[in-house]
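User: I'm putting together notes for a lab meeting next week and I want to include a structural view of one of the chains we've been expressing. I don't have a solved structure, so I'd like a prediction I can at least talk through. The sequence is below, exactly as it appears in our construct file.
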Amino acid sequence: MERRTLLTALSAWLAGVTAPAAAQAKAPFPLQKSEAEWRKLLSPAAYAVLFQHGTERAGTSPLNAEKRPGTYVCAACYQPLFDAATKYESGTGWPSFWQTLPQAMGTSTDYKLIYPRTEYHCSRCGGHHGHVFNDGPKPTGKRYCNNGVALAFVPQGDPLPALRT
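Assistant: Thanks for the context. Below is the predicted structure for the 165-residue chain, given as structure tokens.
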């Protein structure tokens, strides 16, 4: 990595770490809830991933073994995010997909590991789901590496849950 690239990434990371909370505030998402409301609705592990940008341990999600047709929805607000037909085995230990549903996700740049990564989040509630990489299969070449605890699976034929309000 070039010195200039490293210094730029380090500066951006430090700015994010040291900026006051108001400066780090995200754009508002259509579904807004307080921390207490989200904590009441979610397991501690799901809250940590979705709203504290945590990461579940690789290989721990039961969704890794899920092979049925259906839809993966956001565990926080139930917005549909992925069609099960786009899921594939990436070998990473997390559920991985090569495409999201239209308008389901937003992205931002994450410098937590110093170098920039593309984080993606639910476009409805802002919940953090994972990171997208350019090493996935055709046709998109993308790997949406998702925390399983941030998802819920709805088998084909079952009704999708009503969106949380």
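A couple of points you could mention at the meeting. Residues 121 and 128 are 4 Å apart (CA to CA). Residues 3-25 have pLDDT under 50 and may be disordered.

User: Perfect, that's what I needed.
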